[in-house]
Structure formats: C-alpha cells, structure tokens
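Memo to structure team: turn this sequence into structure tokens by end of day. - J.P.
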Amino acid sequence: MTRSVPMRPRMEDGGKALVLHDDPSGVRPLVAGLEARGFVVVEARSGEAALEGLRRFAPGIVFMDAAAIGQGCHAVARRIKAAAGGCFVPVIVLATPAEAHELVGRMEADRDEDADVDDFLAKPVDPVQLRAKLAVFGRVAQLCRTARAQQEELVFEQELARQVYAKTAMADPAQLAAIHGLQRPASVFSGDILLVERSPSGALHVLVGDFTGHGLAAAIGALPAADVFRGMTAKGFAPAEILVEINRKLRRTLPTGMFLAAALVCLDGEGCWAGIRNSGLPDVLVLGGAAGSLKERVPSSSIPLGILDEIGPCELRWIAVDADDQIVVMTDGIVEARDAQGECFGEQRVWSCLAGGAGAFGRLVDGLDRFTAAAPQEDDLTLAVIPCGGSALDPPVAGTACGEALPPAPGPVAVPVVDWHWELELGAAALKRLDVVPLLVDTLVDLQGLRGCRQPLFTILSELFNNALDHGVLRLESRVKADPEGFARYFRERRERLAGLERGRIHISLAAWPDGDGGRLEIGIEDDGPGFDYERWRRGFRQSPRHGGRGIGLVEDLCESVEFLGAGNRVRAVYRW
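Reply from structure team:
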C-alpha cells in the first residue's frame, strides 16, 4: 500500500494569490485577471504586511510590484520563501522592461539570490501571459508537492527500516554493555554488523562482520546473518556450526558478488579460553595484561562467508587468556579511514593507539577521530574491544544500557506434566555430524514448556553427553588439559579422532513425570566405552586439574541426584523443576 499524494486545484483554475504593491491602480489589471480565473486575492502594502498575509492566508502564488519594493525585491522574496516553510510558493515580479533588466542584472551579479525571484511579468499585465504563467507555475507547484510527499514517504520508510534493522541486526544494548563497541555507519544503514550473545553455557559470542559495500544494499544481508547467529547461539550450538550455517544462509539469499567478511570470538564462561575464527577481516589482536602488549595476532584464515556453497570445518583457534587480556576486532573501515589529504589511518596508527593497556578502546576512538576530523566518512566503521574478564563474563544487569530495565528472565511455562519417555541412540556417523545437545534441549523446551530452564538443562545435557563422547567413545584423557598447551592439544586430538570415528555408540533416554507443583526429569546417557573407576574419581575430584573435571561437579550442583552405574559408562541424573 502506498500513500496518495494530495491533489490540489490547478493554479490556473483558482486558489489564493498575494499581491504586494503600493498603488492599487498599478495592479488593477492583475487583480482583475486573477479574480476572473477564480482566485481569492489578498493585497498587501508592505513587506511585513505580505509576510503576515502569507502566514494567515497561505497563498499559492505571490506577485510583487517592482515599483513598490525597488531594490528590496530579492530581500522580500527571500523572506517570503523562508516563511513558506519548505512549500513551493512562486514569487513573480511585476516590472517594466527597464526594471526587469536591472533586477536580472542583480541576480547574475549575486548568484546566491538567484532562487528568490522565480519569474517576471511585464506591466501592464496581459491576460494571455498571466494565464500562461499560472499554468506553468501550477504544474511546477504540483511537481514540488509530489516530490515533497515522496521525500516524506522515503524518510518514513527509512526510519521504519532503521528501527527494524536496529532491533534485528545490531547488538542488544544490554549485551553490548559487556564489551566496548563502536558502530558508525557511513549512511543511514550500515553494512557492518556487531552482534553479542551468550550461549546457555555462559560463553560469550561476539560476531563482527563487514558486508560488501555499505548503505541499504549492504545492510540487507545483515538480517539473515543476525537471525542465524542469535538463534543458534541461544540454543547452544557450537561456534563452528554457527559459522557454517551463516555461510549457507548467505549463499542462498545474497546476490552474486555480495559476501560477508567476519570474525567470530567465543569467550568461555570462565574467561580462560578464547576461540577466534577470522574470515576476511583485518587481524584480530589479543592484548596481554595491564601493559597491553601483543599476545596473539589472528589473521584471516579463510575466505569470507557467502561465497562458496560449503566452507568445510570452521574450527576456531583457541587461545589461553587471562582476566586482564583484551581482544580487539575491527572492520577494514577503521584501518582504511582517510584524513583530509587522503592518507589512510593504517595498522601502525591502530597499534600505537592500542599500546598501553587499560583504556585502549578510548585511545583508539580518540585517535581515529582526530585523524579524520576534517574528512568525510567513506566506509562503515565498526570496532569491538572484548575484555576477557569482569563485565564480559557477567550476565546482563537491569538498567545497564540506555537506562532501561531488562525484563525478568521467564520462568517455566505452566504446562501440565504427564508421564512420557523418549530414547535416542547415535552411531558413529551421527556422532560425527550432529550437534545433538541443542536439539535435545529444544525438544525438552517445546515438549514440556521448560523455556526458563533452558540454561541448566543445556549445562546438564552438554556435560553428560560430552563426557560420554570424549572419554567413552573417543577415549580421551581429561588430565591432558592440565595446562594451556595440553588444552589445545586435547581439542586438536578430539577433532582428529572424531573425524576418523568408525565405531561408537551413545544411548540417550529422557523421561518425565509429575512431582508436586512441578515435575522430575530423568536423564540417562550410556556409551559403549570401557568406563572408568568413578568411585576413585569421586574421591579425588577436588584435586582435578584446572581445565578438567569441573563438569560433573557442576551437574551435581544442578541436579537432585547423579549416579554412575555399571563400569562407569552409564550415568543417570534427575533434574527437578
């Protein structure tokens, strides 16, 4: 549906006209001609009276007698145009040939005033010329009204689209408060994205991206990318799976030649590890400690998203981080920003601003502003500085952004609990291909209405399932994760063993039944591994290495009970809500 442009009577068929003069006899033919065409004529004897008439009667056309105004024609016309408030009100000067010659000469000498007076009409007024002028300016006025209505429609649609874009493709202010972020579009819409979301496990996911070009055309691609990122992160999918799905979505929806250069940073819930994948952006920088020295540099290791149908494994590079480390991600608009002489900001200036530890974000923004102060912005600018401890690991707090309180977290939906039992068995092919935990959690949420319990359910299922997969099926040793190097080796070996897996099985059973005002959920997971001495493990649990052994203890805190059965390759946990 489109808005209709209001139609007004044609100027030559009537309306209101203002005539500015100092001698009624000199404009009598004009007034008679206007009234004969159906106009209501308002007469004024001075410039002030003309402005008052303009405000009170809103005429569609103004005539001024040059003999009455003299050299002040342009000044009066300029004030009339300003008082019209953006509406097109033609100003026609009644002049003898000599007066018209002099006024035109002044217009050519001072080009700043050449839009004040629109036309001249010879005195005495000829009815045929008057009719022609009215017809011409009637058409011009209608074109101006149409253009103004279309401009208003465009502004309305842009604002509506901007609001939708801001809610869909830009970071939630409450989540953005966890990091230091800068987004400056080169126009109304940005081709850059900065998205911040937390997974049910407590991990912080930050996606920084730059679509081809900028403006509305580039911003269109942000909507499907943001939808996939937010949805899959909230459901607990692995970062690599999220990137694969974003690539598939963009490949299906974007036109040829449009793609997304992006970097994904995943900060684990305890601030010990950061996973980084860079696909086409400038180097991601990890700054170490209070001094802000360069700890790691993560260059682009793959082509941007949306170019190939499949991008293969999207493994992240995992880096051990400390609480006072910072991760810097930026789009090329930062590095390529130009000053008034056309010189690029460059990587060296970026690094000079970042060096020095705390306050790196503010120093970089200030340095960029000083450098580009006198130059127009040519590209979208996006910067994220992610602290590896503190606020980045805390959940959003009410009132932390824009003074708005966050709505309370939803509790379990009141869905009547009935007895049900569900079982699933995964073989080697399924274990290699499926990220099954988010699917299980979605099933529980949809089946029993446990939306407010998504996070604890995700933690319980992911810890139990990954324990069965890693230690039961893949035979990985948890003690390998005793130090950062071992942690990286553990995940590298896990990836290799899973890719080559030919035999293996995990059986999952879920059962629920009513219990008072809520319900009880029994989770059973069994693998075909050799098991382990769980009694011995439990006795030594508190001496577990830094990067291993914490998961089962967390499950025990969340569940009513946790039991290991058989050889240790069966576990049964009961969760109550």
